Amino acid sequence: MTTIKQMLILSMLPVAVSARATCMPDAPEIGDIGPSSEVVCRQLESHFAGAKLAVQGRAIHSPTDVSVLTSVDGTPVRMGYELTGYTWRLTVAD
């Protein structure tokens, strides 16, 4: 009987491990600059594992300064990025 229980628990393990929250990227638009939504999502997931995450939009301040509006469990978080060489670098997150 315990073997059946162990097999049942082990068969459910991959489902439980893969049931974490994912980040919902925004749709790309013509003229958008800044880091891709996938890059922003990876950064959010590394800091807020298990939270409900979404990229909601962006504000372009200059060709080298962009703010990305995100949501962490429904709370808005603005992430500021600056272009350094060829790489968008996170400068501010509030």
Structure overview:
By secondary structure, the chain is of the alpha+beta class. It has one domain: Nuclear Transport Factor 2, Chain: A. The protein contains 2 helices and 5 strands; from the N terminus they run αβαββββ. It has a 5-stranded mixed sheet with strand order 1-2-3-4-5.
Strand order of the largest sheet: 1-2-3-4-5
Largest sheet: 5 strands, mixed
Assess the beta-strand content as a share of residues: 35-45%
Rg (C-alpha, Å): 18 Å
- Mind telling me the CATH class? Alpha Beta
Supply the helix-strand structural class.
alpha+beta
* Count of separate DSSP helical elements: 2
In whole angstroms, the N-to-C terminal distance is: 53 Å
Give the mean pLDDT: 82
- Low-confidence parts lasting 5 or more residues at pLDDT below 50? 13-19
Sequence of secondary-structure elements = HEHEEEE
Named CATH architecture: Roll
Count of extended strands: 5
Portion of residues within helices: 25-40%
Structural shape: globular
Domain unit count: 1
Topology:
Blueprint (H helix, E strand, L loop, with lengths): L1 H16 L5 E2 L12 H11 L5 E10 L2 E8 L2 E10 L2 E7 L1
Parallel strand pairs: 1-2
Antiparallel strand pairs: 2-3, 3-4, 4-5
What's this, in brief?
With about 90 residues, this protein is an alpha+beta fold. The chain has two helices and five strands; from the N terminus they run H-E-H-E-E-E-E.
Give keywords.
94 residues; alpha+beta; Nuclear Transport Factor 2, Chain: A
